[in-house]
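Today's session is about reading a structure prediction critically. Students often jump straight to the picture, but the first step is always the sequence itself: look for stretches that repeat, for charged clusters, for runs of hydrophobic residues. Only then move on to the predicted structure, which in these notes is written as discrete structure tokens rather than atom positions. Here is the chain we will use throughout the hour.
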Amino acid sequence: MKFKILLALIFVNLLQAQKFYFPKTAVNDSVILEKQIPGLAQQVIPHLQSAKYKPENTVDLMDNLFRLQIVAQDYKNSLISLSENRKLFADNNMGDYRYIGFELYTLAKMEQKENNTSFSNVLQKVFNKKYESLLEKTIPRLGIALDGDVRESKKQLKKVLDKQKDKDSIDYRTALALCKSYLSYKTYSGIKPQVMQLLASKDREKFIIETRDLKLKNGNTLTITIVRKKGDTTPLPVILTNNIYAGPFDEFFGKRAAIYNYVGAVVNTRGKRNSNNVNNPFEHESEDLYDVIDWVSKQPWCNGKVGMIGGSYLGFSQWGAVKKLHPALKTIVPQVAVGIGVDYPAQNNIFMSYMLQWIQYVTNNKLTDEADFANAVKWDSIYTKWYKSGKAFRSLDTISGKPSKIFQRWLDHPGYDQYWQKMVPYKEDFSKINIPILTTTGYYDDDQIGALYYFKQHHLYNKNADHYLVIGPYNHGGAQSFGFTYVNGNPIDPAARISIDDLAFSWFDYILKGGQKPEILKDRINFQVMNTNTWKHVADLDKMHNSSLKFYLQDKKNTSSVFNKPENKTFTTQIVDLKNRDQKDTYYKVSKKDSIKMTNSVAFESEVLDKDIIMSGNLSGVFNVSINKKDFDTDTYLYQIQPDGKSSLLSTHIVRASYAKNNEQRQLLEPNKTEQIPINNSYFMSKKIEKGSKLLLLVGVNKSPNWQINYGSGKDVSDETIKDSGEPLEIKWYNDSYVEIPVYKD
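Below is the predicted structure for this chain, in token form.
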């Protein structure tokens, strides 16, 4: 009896500490693991919705719940939770492909249990049934959705199990990670070979897919994949994509075009797939794509018209293609396009650490190194090691263990010089681009600055540019696929939840097939105003707003309004020790519910807004500063503090002060002299800010493992080390500095 009471007390104590019984024998014995893990999942589920562990948004909650329910063998409820996850992720069945591997595994397990038959037989049955039920537009995504990495999931499972060696209990977070990694391994090791064969069989019924080597006139060889829908006997316009991410995405892009009744052509860049040429990202698109388009346009399945589509690097590629425009190229749809030399690999002339991670991602092999790219722990440790070392940014590739000629070559061009200019149209080149163009980007798109750079330059140098913009509350992925219901954990307006795929191909129908102009394109700029559930349409970017608020760098305690120009000139002093590598993060307490990281920043808070305002456009303005060095990198954030005490980011801006006036030519600052730093190329936003909100402006110094560190010596920043830092950086932020917030008034 005493023994039972003791066991009960131990069990209660484990629960109170959110720990669960899990025998150490399960670590090395797969049979015991199989028996124990369903019960573990059952114990974890009730804690998932507790205040301590509940995810911030319902999408993540349902994501974890359906996985745990599958592991717990509660298959019926897992399918309900998975369906709820998809509905929360995207409207209008746009996310029906999401986690389809888990769905097929679950359906097969249910069927196997009911009919006591082989897993292989029921898997084929449920696959065929599910395939027939899907919207046709979903089918191109199946190859990517089902292509789970068995080796990586096995590795992750082993990693979690190794943490449990010699332990007879498991904490909540480890238990959740164990259940999820176990499910991924069991699912994809159980279904992948068979379902990929079944999908290939379905593809053969629906498509003609051909992959071949294409020898260019310049002597280089590229790999091109052509996808046509079976039954198409007449020549069609071709939708071409230039893809450095060789792999499953090649067939996806091709099949997507075919589903929309075009021929899909996907060409890989030099050095990718079957090409033995040197892979130098970004450098050869303007040359190679002319020959590719020439070849494609002369094929019997092409009617002589070519359009291009793609996002990020693939968006950049289209601007490379129009630098030397082929007559068969009738339109391009650059989505979230990288502004090479403008927002990547340096944003406003500040190089980012991520550039090395990306270089290795696309150059480690002939396809893409997914496992290495996704290894956040590895890359964070590399960035931190460099940061802690105080070595030059140029040493980052050596610290990673893999020196990179590409990384070094990029660093040799800190200004927007001819190296970058030759890759895409430059100044007057834009005047010669007279084909229709549709650009899509988002307020939360990492390459928004690049996408808008091309749009602005095209309209600046070509007054008759037939170039449309669609921008809304989308991130980098959403603005090249469809509007996710939640972005950054917050729901977007129903009006914004559109299919970017449908928009793009209705554009192609309009230009290449004489169809109707897409309804959303009522003017050159088409933007969704967040929190109003409406779209607005204007002729140019400046008309997104018709008024502005100047937020001056002054303490609200000393003024009736931070939006009034100060009567007396003063300054706020900020001191940043660039040598300090053990600096603790500091936070601005917004409310009991929220705080904002403000390390190396100075905070300025507005009074409470007495009416709604619509911010629409991007921040401009000027910083009047005096520093004791020759240069520094500014870092600016504008937040809304909502009436409920939560914060939301409205816009950001970083720039190297010495390049702020001209991104091509460095102009060092004169120490201890008041200088003006203009604010350009900040992030666009259109959002209604409710009455009762406040605005919080953080201005400061960019000092982080994620970016170069500018020590202010005046040397090439890539070559500066901690030895160049000298005395701490002292900045005087004068109160006549202001950030100008664009406002739309009805």
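Discussion point for the tutorial: Confidence is low (pLDDT under 50) at residues 1-16.
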